């Protein structure tokens, strides 16, 4: 039953073990791990075994009430010392022990004992504390999980570059199937290669930032161009699971989320996932020659000077805490909050979150955990930021078939929830459903290819990445680096990798139509989605929960299949801004607005309108980044001195553990 989470124990297949060598990734010998796709974890796991790290507690405020409904930036009206004393008093009264207290958004504090418990144990503590007259609300600080699965698949090393050349799944649907987004068609449109007259000339491209809230990033040329030094932040707050030797810090580098020995039944020994880098690689060129090749995501057709990826590290060993996710979301969108390391100077218009946990996010009680997500997402919408989140990869009791409904926060109102398809447009076996009928849930649903492994055929198992051919198996991980010296390369599949494709198209749309609101942006994506095709698989039956590989319906796979070209076309026709780009925003120095000329424009990935301007902007960027990094580090140092307050255990009479 647990094979879907760490892959240990089921023989017969091989999964890549990743190590870092000299700053680059290398794919070391695989371990005998679980069934195909069983290396990582389903996003929704066993209810009884989910982990939590303490509680998020908001004390009552004499000045303001119902704080969940107030802005994220609200601070308690009394002093930090008063908050500490009141927290100690309340927890003493209710016999709830804690060792660490630190401020977080919404005027609340995270308290915990320095080690994980089960969610059930934390809920019991929360229930006690909620009875205290000085407590406004208590939310269990659950740990959410990445929505990826991984397999290793042998190809010859020399197939690497050739595989890029035939990387059809990111090209035209006619070559692959109706499950793919058709990025090549969008690329052609943007470059007028095959659709003359379809875009105005010149076409202004505005800067756009896509934040990837995940396990952090690794260095790779394709990625580094879009994640300049000083870009991003690390919100993994607990040192013991951060693996980088500290809590919050300005460096979002992924130190690995490996675990040497079992921590719990749901967090057993595993190799590093490099999940964040894999997700980010869906946004990046992944190509040696940007003039002829494109990466999987629409971002690869925008020059790096226009479209940036903001790495926001929220996931460490065993997953990502809700409190860290909430803080990461707020920070990424440029929202201030209690405990923030400073306001993000490069706010993201799109946030990709390929993490999730159980919950339909429909609890409207302002004191519930759902409310934290709902309020945060609503706040982000007011900033013009769309949250795109993976629907998750099935339930732990049935990893092979997905389950009905997306995980949280994909299930939250206002979120673009993305499920995964096979190349032919049928729902991927493992993928959770998303409801595109908008009947009640309030989230938006879309689908796009995310890989599958339903067939014993290795070719079929990697259809997303290989275009149904084993020699094309170069995937979402990074080119070259992903193959070991035996020619085995690493690929992943999952709703984790469907979501960033939607995020990329959202960014593409915003780059030509920067004034769109979140609702308008969502409308462009949903209305241009292709109706679900009808491949041979039987229809998804939500009532019977037979939602393995099945023919999509709107109720099972969202409004349709993401169509990159149609979305771009709609954005240009209906929304493209005219005139020269002018940026009043603080982060303008990171970017160079681009103006694409219609005729003879070559390459979508690297061409700049004016190299001189690019150079000047680069110099400005470096100066700005240096200052920003210095300031971030100074703020982080300052925050570290005040963030964590340790209360001696012997003062906590009657603590639970
Ligand atoms: Ca850290
Ligand atoms: Ca770090």
Question: What would you say this structure looks like, in words?
Answer:
With about 650 residues, the chain is α/β, with parallel strands linked by helices. It has a domain at about 175-260 and about 270-575: Rossmann fold (3-Layer(aba) Sandwich). About 25% of the residues lie in helices and about 20% in strands. Strands 3, 4, 5, 6, 7, 13, 15 and 21 form an eight-stranded antiparallel β-sheet that branches. Helix 14 packs across helix 15 (about 520-525) and helix 14 runs parallel beside helix 17 (about 565-575). It starts with a helix and ends in an 11-residue tail after the last strand. The chain binds calcium ion (2 copies). One calcium ion (CA) binds near residues 234, 236, 244, 247 and 249. Keywords: Hydrolase, Protease, Serine protease. This is Serine protease. It comes from Aquabacterium commune.
Helix-strand category: alpha/beta
**According to CATH, what is the topology of the domain at 175-260 and 269-575?**
Rossmann fold
Estimated helix fraction: 25-40%
The DSSP helix count reads 18
User: How far do the termini sit from each other?
Assistant: 29 Å
Percent of residues in β-strands: 15-25%
Q: List ligands, each type once.
A: calcium ion
Sheet having the most strands = 8 strands, antiparallel
How many strands in all? Answer: 21
Mean pLDDT: 73
CATH class category of the domain at 175-260 and 269-575: Alpha Beta
Low-confidence stretches: 1-48, 150-168, 455-489, 578-591, 596-622, 635-657
Oligomer: single chain
C-alpha geometry: globular
The CATH superfamily name of the domain at 175-260 and 269-575 is Peptidase S8/S53 domain
* Radius of gyration over all CA atoms, rounded: 23 Å
| Proper CATH architecture of the domain at 175-260 and 269-575 | 3-Layer(aba) Sandwich
Keywords: Hydrolase, Protease, Serine protease
Organism: Aquabacterium commune
GO molecular function, one term: serine-type endopeptidase activity
Protein name: Serine protease
